[in-house]
Amino acid sequence: MAIDVKSRKDLEVKIIRDSQVWNYLPNPESIIRSSARGLRIYDDMKEDARIGSLFEDRRNATNNLPCYITDVDNQRVNGYASEHLNEANLRKWGFLLLDGALTYGFQPAEIIWERDKNGFYYIAGLDCHDITRYRMNSDGDLFYDSITPLNQPYKWIVHRNEGDSYNRQYGRAYLRRVYWPWKFKTLGWQFWLTATEKFSVPSLVVLFEQSDPKKAKETANELADLILSLSSGSGGAMANIKGIQQITMGGSVSDFDALITACDLQISYGMTGQALATNVSETGTQALGTVQERTKNAAYENDARALRYTLQKLVDYSIAVNFGNDEPSPIFSFDTEDKASFDEVLRAYQAGIPISRKAMYAQYGLPEPEDEEDALEAPSSASMGTMGTAFNFSDDGNPKKKLPMILLGGR
Question: Pairing state of beta strands 106-115 and 148-149?
């Protein structure tokens, strides 16, 4: 027997009343900031499988872009930068700042300084603290614990997503646009779990007739004990029984998958600007996929340019603390430009277009020879850029000559 309408309605009303989102959809920023969890709600959202994977894809794709820091004329500055402003440290700081800014919209961090054996001060780490402990006054100034101002350039650094210290000081949280799809999806999970708990194992109801109320109660208790004792595959005989029926639930639970799929689709649109790369499509083309992949790449590059300005401040602080404000700082940058494929580079080489050997080794991760003895040598027939395994071997099987370095520019 299907569940009666009254019971099903009671179940649905409980979920709807708990959610409080069916009558209106206010700005998620006001909801989040006024809630007990505050900005920590965004941490809850990242636990969602779809949101978490797309968030990590954007953060990691940006932070893993090739990065460089230039040399300056002062060799002491270059030595300091090589030790304390190296790629590993800059990527580590960039990861913390970008992760927080994408999550909450802004990420303040306290700069921790230490002194090395040569007497130089260097950034030993960034302490981001609990995001809920930062406040902003009526003038737009940020404070930590409502006491410590963050307008101390060598002590604090703030990275914002789509914002700055003069416009949108709190930045714009990357996850805010998918708050409502996530909320509906969460409510769908709650409804599904509640329905499953109540109705996944069918209940049995025994129908019988008994005019004597006292006797009916005794019979009902006996039948209930007998039903409870039944296990899978077992049987029993009951007298004066009109029938045994199941209490089951249909319809509402079967629609659960459609709800989750619809929410995941909207999350994909909100976090990537498109859905083809993150959802199955029956009509998508390779050209459309390429265009939409570029949409994601544009977001990565925009994040990288903003992060570059923040990390450059850390470089400038480090140089100013140790060498003075007048000393030029090394320039840090991410490489966000599209790169030619390896086949395109080989065709350019064959056409006589000069190729940067250093850039080729860095871009394609090729091992650069240490010297002439370490270099492999290709025969003249391969001098136009082919990558054969042509060696001249003597009778004893040993190669007669080594490969020259003509692959990445030649001599």
Answer: unpaired
